[in-house]
Amino acid sequence: MLAVRQKVEKVAGASVPILIQGDSGTGKGVLASYIHSISSAKNAAFVKVNCAAIPGTLLESELFGFERGAFTGAHASKPGRVELADGGTLFLDGIDEIDMSLQAKLLQLLQDGQFSRIGGQEDCHVDLRVICSTGRPLEDQIAKGLFRSDLFYRINVVNIHLPSLRLRAQDIRTLVSYFLQVHCARHKLQRNPISAAAIRLIERHPWPGNIRELENLIERYVILGSEEAISVELLKGVHSPAPSDAIGGGQIHLKKITQRAVQELEHKIILSVLEANHWNRKKTAIDLRISYRGLLYKIRRAGLPSKRHLASRPEYLPSAEIPADQ
Fold first, then answer.
1. Do 278 and 320 contact (CB within 8 A), yes or no?
2. Which of 120, 171, 186, 216 has its CA at 20 to 30 Å from residue 258's CA atom?
3. Non-local CB neighbours of 126 within 8 Å, separated by 6+ positions
4. pTM higher than 0.85, yes or no?
């Protein structure tokens, strides 16, 4: 990410097209906004267009505008997003979603800064920077005949790739602290810093939704005020028997199902925190905010092995060496 920032600071002052690539949730929109904020056009408009959210038939009029009478319902002329971004930055989020027919018109805009409104007879001229983003390799789209190669070369003057969160785990603590501060201020709430045990759970999560998923998790913690919101979310993907397993004779025993679900969740949380602490039970008790005796009781009730039996139970062995309890 330091390399990304260094590249951004070098190109922000040059009005050249930028292509931002990365998985969904990695912060492509945030980066585009940041580039605009440190550019010479920072006081001009930053106009974002979500290409995937606008149907292809409407995207052209949304981008380039239209003249009165251009089609049924066009009772007055309307400028498009391109004109609104004149002098500033146009951010095309999801450039790979644009139809081939519209790509040609976009190519003209990038080549000479000119375009025409739908139904217009004259060309309009704008001076703006275009930043595009995509979550798919455009080279693959070109090979499939879904994206113009000449347009790709135009938007790919500077290429920035944002890595997935699972590849930058060292940034998670900083991001957690930042999102905690932001959402406490947003919701006007005071929350304790997230415990070390919860942080370790967060760092071990694969984060398929990337930074967006992490931010949602921290906001949930701020609103609910309990770290259980974090533990439940991070452990819910672990397989547990379906409620039907506890159903017998055509009757649903709600109390038994609920008790079993709670016990299984407690088992998963304790096991995860034990592993995060390399099976140091005293530290685990502190992180879980329960007594040491209470933790030992829960370990026995959950059927977890004691440390002296771990050597013969490889399925419970953590990856790191197990130190003695402090």
1. yes
2. 216
3. 82, 83, 85, 86, 87, 109, 113, 114, 115
4. no
Look at the block and give the residue holding tokens 């959210």.
Answer: 53
Handedness of CA 271, 272, 273, 276 (dihedral sign): positive
d(CA 323, CA 283): 12
Give the whole-angstrom CA distance, residue 32 versus residue 15: 13
Report the candidate in 85, 122, 130 with the shortest Cα–Cα distance to residue 106. Answer: 130
**CA 244, CA 296: separation in Å to the nearest integer?**
31
Long-range contacts of 148-156 (CB under 8 A, 24+ apart): 148/100, 148/103, 148/104, 148/107, 150/107, 151/103, 151/106, 151/107, 151/110, 154/17, 154/107, 154/110, 154/111, 155/17, 155/18, 155/19, 155/95, 155/110, 155/130, 156/17, 156/19
pLDDT in tens, 60-112: 999 998 888 777 777 788 889 999 999 999 999 999 999 998 999 999 999 99
Q: What percent of the chain has pLDDT over 70?
A: 84
Q: Distance between CA atoms of 136 and 147, rounded to whole angstroms?
A: 11
Mean pLDDT, residues 260-287: 79
Residue 280 three-state SS: coil
Residue 268 pLDDT > 80, yes or no?
no
Count the alpha carbons within 13 Å of 277 in the hemisphere toward its beta carbon. 24
